[in-house]
Each structure stands twice: as C-alpha cells, then as structure tokens.
Amino acid sequence: MKMTKYVIKRILLMFFVFFVVTTICFMLIRLLPRELPQNKVQAEAIAQRWEALGYNEPLLTQFAIYLRNIFTEFDFGTSWYIQFREPALNLLLGRLAPTVLVNTYSLLLSVPLGILLGIYAAIKKNKWQDSLISTGVMVFVSVPSYVYAFLVQYFLYFKLDLLPLTVYSLADAGGSWFTGKMFYSMIPPILALSFGEIASLCRFTRAELTETLTSDYMLLARTKGLTRGQATARHALKNAMVPILPMIIGSFVSVMSGSMIIERIFSIPGVGQLYIQAINLFDYDVFMIDCIFYSFVGLLAGIVVDLSYGFIDPRIRMGEK
Amino acid sequence: MENMNNIPKEKFAFVHHGEQISDKKFEDKPIGYFKDAWIRFRKSKASVVAAIIILCIMLYSVLTPLLITSHDATFMCSTYAKKPSRVTWLRDFGIATGGVDRNTNEAGYIKLVAIGAGAVSGKGEAVSLKEGMDSPYQPILHTGAPYVQEMGKKTTYYPVKVDTYLEVGFLYTDVEQAEYNKILAWQEQTGIQVIYPMVDTRNEYCFDPEDANYWYKTKGKAVPVSTVGGNAKSLSYSEDLVLEDNYKRNADGSVAYFSYTGGGDQNTAQMKIRVLYYNYYRYLYGSEPNYIMGTDSQGYDLALRIAGGIQMSLLVAISVSVINFLIGAAYGAVEGYYGGTTDIVLCRITDILSGVPFIVVATLFQIHLAQKVGAIPSLLFAYVLTGWIGTAGRVRTQFYRFKNQEYVMAARTLGARDRRIIWKHIFPNTLGTIITSSALVIPSVILTESMLSFLGIIKLGSAEATSLGTLLSDASGIWTQYPHLMLYPALVISLLMICFNLFGNGLRDAFNPALRGVED
C-alpha cells in the first residue's frame, strides 16, 4: 500500500517537474526572434499561418494555446523549415527509429560484455588480469566517444576498408531500418558507442561485486560447504545485481535520446541530428518538441531507475522514513 | 610465512623497556585531516603521475606562446593551411620535415622536380632536372622505386615523400609598385630570390594559366614537350633532362618579372608577379615557416591553437568548479542544517532545475546571451545554473550526518550561532567530499564543452579564442587527408580526460576515511 502511494507520488512529482520545465523552455524559446525565409511567397504564407496560430499574442496566451493544442489534438506545433508544414511530432517520431536502434544494438553488445568483464576482474581481484582490465577501463571511460568514432572510422574504413564511413540512408539500405545492410552500416557507430559503455559497466560491476564478495554472508556460504563458484554465482552475484540492474534499465530508457555527437559523425538521421538542425535553421517548434522530449526521457529514466530498485530487491521498501 | 610458528627467540626484542614514558610529550607532530589525505594521495602512483601530466599540459599551454617567437596565436597564413609539422633545424634529422607520402605519375613527378629546377633558374637560364633535384627548394624529400600499374594502359608511378610547404612552389600575386620595389631591395640585401620570371600564359604550351608552377612547355595532360624543330615532342623523365622554359620574354629576349594589371602612379601601380612562396613567406614574416605541430584548417599554428584551447578549457572548467563549489556548499549547508520545510522547498527547486537537460540549457543560453555577453560567459552561466546540484546534494547528506552529533550540540549549548555552527563546526567535515566532487567536475566540463563546440552549439572559432572541440570539429570532414589536424587535439583531450579522472579518483580515495589502512 505504502509502495503504491509512493509510486503515485513519484509519478505526480515527475509530471509537475516536467510541466515546469516545459513552461520554462516554452517561454525561453518563444522569446527568441523569429525569422522569415527569403522566399517572399513562402514568407507570406508562413507569416499568415503564424498569425492564425496565435504566435503574435501575448506569451501566456500563446502558452495556453500551445497546451490546448497538445491536449485536444496532440499537436506540438509545426515544422517550418526542416520539412515545410510537417507536424513536429511526426518529424520527431520519424527520427526516433534510427536513434533507438543504434543505441539498443550498442547496449545489447555492451551490457553482457561489460558485466562479464567486471565479474572476471572482481574474481581475479588484485591479480594481473584485474589490473589490466582496470587500467583499460580507466582509459576507456575517460576518452571521449568521438575519439572512438574517429578511431573506428580510421581503422575499419580507411585502413581495412571493412565497413562504410557513415550510416546508409533509408533508400540505400532497402527502405527499412531493420535490413541486414542497414545493420552492417550501423556497426561503426555501435562500436564507437560501446567502448565507453562497456568500460563504465565493467567498473561498476567490479566495484559492486568486490564489495559483496568480501561480505559476511559469503563467508557463511563458504562455511556451509558451497564451492567458490557456487557461492559467487548464487549469493554474491545476485546481491551485486541489485544496483546494477536498475542502471541497465535506466540506460535502456535513455536509448531514446541517444548521442548527438555520434549521430553527427556517422550522419545518422536521428533525434540528435534533428535537434542540431532545428537550432541551425531556427525551426523553433521542432526545437521545442525536442527539448520536451529530452527532458521527458531524462525524467522517465530517473523515475524508472528509482522504482526498479523496489521491484528488484524486496528488501528495499520505498516511501519509508 | 611458513616459519611464523617457530621464530627463534633471539629475534624478539623489547620495543621499550625500563624508563617511564607516560608523561612525555609526543615527539612527532599530529597528522591532521589534510595531511593524512596528502599522505594517502602520494601513495597512489597513478594519481601522482596524472597530477604531473596535468601540470605538464598546463605548462605547455602557458609556455608554448612564449617559446614560439616567430609568430603569435592570432597569426594566420592561409596558403600554408592544413600543413603537417615542419621545423627547419629538425629537418636534417628526418623528423618534422613537413613531408607526406604520396604516389604520383610521371607528369606529376616532373612537375615537382621542376619546382626545384625553376627555383634554380632565377634568370631563365636552362637547368637540368638533376640541378633542380639538388636545390634547397626541391619539394621531393625522397623517391622510392617507380612501379608500373596497369589499368587499361600502363602508367608509371613514383612513390615520393613531398615537403608540402615547398610543394606550394610558385604563386602569382598582385602587388603595388612600391611593394615590388621593397621586395627587390630585400632580395638585394639578403640574397634570397623571391620574384621569379613570369610565364607566358597565352601560348598553346601553357597547361594551366592559374598555376605558376608550370613554367615549362607542356601539352595534353601536362606532359612536358620540346618544341625544337617546329613540332612538339613529348619528353619523358631522366636526370639530365633540360625542360624547355615557357617564360614571358621582353623584346630583347630577357625574361619579364612582372606584368602591369592596372593603372596608378609610380607607387600604386598594380602589378602581377610570380613569387616562390617559401621565400615570399620569409620576406613577409621574417622567418622560415616553423610549425611544430603543423597548421590548422585555417592556417593558424596548431601548437598555439591547442595551447589556447587548453587554456580556454581549463579556465572554463576551473571557474565552473569553483563557482559550483561555492554555490553548492552554501545551498547544501542551508538545506541540510535547517531541514524540514526549508529542505523540502529547496529540494523541489533542485528537482526542477535538474529536470532540464543540460544540452537544452546550454543551447538556450547560447542563443539568448552569446551576442550580448559572449560565448564563454554564457557557457559559464549554463554550467552554473545546474552544475552545483550534485555538490549541494553531497553537502546536504554530510550535514544530516553531523548536525545531531554531540559536539554540535555542545557548541549550541555554549551559545554559538547557526552561522558559526555551520561554517566552523560542520562544514570542515564536508570539505573532503566537496573537493573530490569539484575535482571530478573538471573533466566532465572539459568533455561537455568540447562536445558542445564540436556540435557547433557554441561557436568559438575566432582568432583569439578557440577550443579543442572546435579544432576537432574543423578537422572532422578533412582529417583523413590531414591526420595531424585530428591527432594532436584528440590526443591532448584524451590525455586531459584520463589524467583528471585519475587525479579525481586519487583525491576521492585519499579523502575517504573508510579506506584508511585498507591498502596496507
């Protein structure tokens, strides 16, 4: 009962924060000067539509109109420059697939690898294998992801000529995001994203597992007669997973926001690219929906991580003082 | 270990025997919190090495502008843009030659050799390619064994290492008469020839009228020809080959060094001249081109640009870290000390602020403020708006831990005010955590700053200020042809990130009392 109450409270709070953030973003974005395109016919058409949509009203009225449109028609505004008169929501949804795909693939690669490496390092603690992995992890966690992107491009494209330089366009890959050809061209960004992810997961797993491996119940398990492997797999690993799993769940939620820099280097037509385009072309409605989207994904990831603790470990009771 | 059970008796000795020491003073000084932390920090070798590397990078960024005297960071030469590293006195040892490897066909090879030959024949005299090869202005540093490739027809290729600075060779440039006279005077004084004979661009033997390096007669695909005996005969490469020049000659047969392009009086008459750019550079800037890391995509000295970028990154990172330290400490202290309603209200405010994604904050600040206060201050505002939340949270936790302890109660009973209790009694206990988190803020700021400038959200490409991210972003389209543009900035930023992370981790371990004695 307490738990349900806590969950509801957290979700309500999230929506409150989300509303405030949206308001701030809306005010700041609508305050920006709007520019009309050079083309006179188009400029006139856009100006008329802006007038009709209430862009010239006072700011609070505009916000009310914006909210009303969202609640009644699910209309988040219109793109004027990126794709003329395309609803901003459609534009965003269209860009979602490549971002989610690349990041999900990368997570599917890095989660098992990272956890396995972390477990191995923890079991071999203070031996040469551990120091090798830990040194590697330190380097890989620190080096920025775009450096990996360049390294991947350099070695796999220029030196070995195995993989394409950038992700294929939809038409080149057979009209779908799920073709084998598309996956093939997505390998470089997946790799570039994975190095850092593997390293940080490995570090986290190692830290958690070494802590549980030295705890008292492990000693008890060994005294009961379990072998080292049994004790590690059944007791230590299970307990170490308590903080690791929520983190992984959180990263699966945030695959939606993706990495702008990787999207730009490999020219993936994703959400991050849309954001950059919207800024450069001053397409404010698209910019606005992108901002809302990023805030929402961030808040959602936070709340999912928080709540998943309670579901994973029944000992953690949430909402208790 | 195996002899632990039977250690011989004589190995044991009393540590202390006889004399009473219970009333004596301690001889060594007490070890305080910070000294203890310092002792443990020193033990972690990786952190110490990281700290030293950070210091070296800082020194580099400060000293390079002082050591490079021939030009400063705002100096730009667009002709020598994107060139690899070249230092005159290091060239003799085969490093920093400004050279790149490439394969060229015969016509291209002759064109390269001919730059040297053209530089020797300053007055239009006939020289062999051998003489050109030995000229100090010869761009070819080294030729490998030529090989034949068959693609439809046989083509001979020469693998060569070319000095990209000398490869620029000759250029046409427009000067005024006064400037022309100055160059002549300089030539006289130094004995270095800058102005070379003009090429006759009107006849059929001129391959490209814009390219001043075709001073010899060519036809077809820039194949050199001999016109002796009326009709053109193709020439192929040999060391003794003497190319037939295509210089513009005056009526008396001497070569022409300029052509008038516009009117004016004796000083302002416009004229076109053909210069050997390497020497023209020496005339213009007073020294040979020396760029230890090469030049960037616009023609600035990359070493100085990187030094500027490091300075910018560190300046932003350290000021963000200090400001966050101050705001976070004050906010967290108030939150944690007073608790109750104050805490709840302040927590909700941080909830809302941390709900705004940083990238959105940074973008909005850039768009709204960059033109009024500049790109760097608006970046600082963006960091400061949300950056202190983490620090505040940590300080708050520490305050919750310490505020109900006995010594705080004692202080309050003795009449200490809230402000005194907060800053004098509780705050010093939280310092370790705050210092650690402030140190770890630095790499994250460097990273996000480089990412934002890479994406073009912050625009820092001016002559005065640049950032490592901008350098990388400028290089991103062209770095495959000019790898040094990417290599050095990426190396520096990776090194900075690794070292600051190691340094921060070392600090964290050193300030964590729970780890005391664990490693021994």
Average pLDDT rating of chain B: 85
Q: Globular, elongated, flat, extended or rod-shaped: what is the shape of chain B?
A: elongated
Count every beta strand of chain A, where a strand is a DSSP E run of 2 or more residues.
2
CA radius of gyration of chain B is 35 Å
Count of discrete structural domains of chain B: 2
Characterise the protein shown here.
The complex is a heterodimer of chains A (321) and B (520). With 321 residues, chain A is mostly helical. Chain A is built from 12 helices and 2 strands, in the order αααββααααααααα. In chain A, strands 1-2 form a two-stranded antiparallel ribbon. The longest helix of chain A is centred in the first third of the chain and has 36 residues, at 88-123. Chain B folds into 2 domains: 49-64 and 299-515, MetI-like (MetI-like fold); 86-285, no CATH class. Chain B is 50% helix and 11% strand. In chain B, the strands form 3 sheets. In chain B, strands 1, 2, 3 and 4 form a 4-stranded antiparallel sheet that branches. Chain B is elongated. The mean pLDDT of chain B is 85. Chains A and B meet through helix 1, helix 5, helix 6, helix 10 and helix 11 of A and helix 9, helix 10, helix 14 and helix 16 of B.
Give the SSE map.
The complex is a heterodimer of chains A (321) and B (520).
Chain A: H1 2-30, H2 40-52, H3 59-73, E1 78-79, E2 86-87, H4 88-123, H5 128-142, H6 145-159, H7 180-213, H8 216-224, H9 228-253, H10 260-265, H11 271-280, H12 284-312
Antiparallel strand pairs in A: 1-2
Helix pairs in contact in A: 1-12, 4-5, 4-7, 4-9, 4-12, 5-7, 6-7, 7-9, 8-9, 9-12, 11-12
Chain B: H1 33-43, H2 45-67, E1 99-105, H3 106-120, H4 129-133, E2 140-143, E3 147-151, E4 153-163, H5 164-167, E5 170-176, H6 177-190, E6 195-196, E7 218-219, E8 223-226, E9 233-234, E10 258-262, E11 270-276, H7 277-285, H8 302-338, H9 340-355, H10 358-373, H11 375-387, H12 389-402, H13 406-413, H14 418-455, H15 468-475, H16 483-511
Antiparallel strand pairs in B: 1-4, 2-4, 3-4, 5-11, 6-11, 7-8, 8-9, 10-11
Helix pairs in contact in B: 1-16, 2-8, 2-16, 8-9, 8-11, 8-12, 8-14, 10-11, 12-14, 13-14, 14-15, 14-16, 15-16
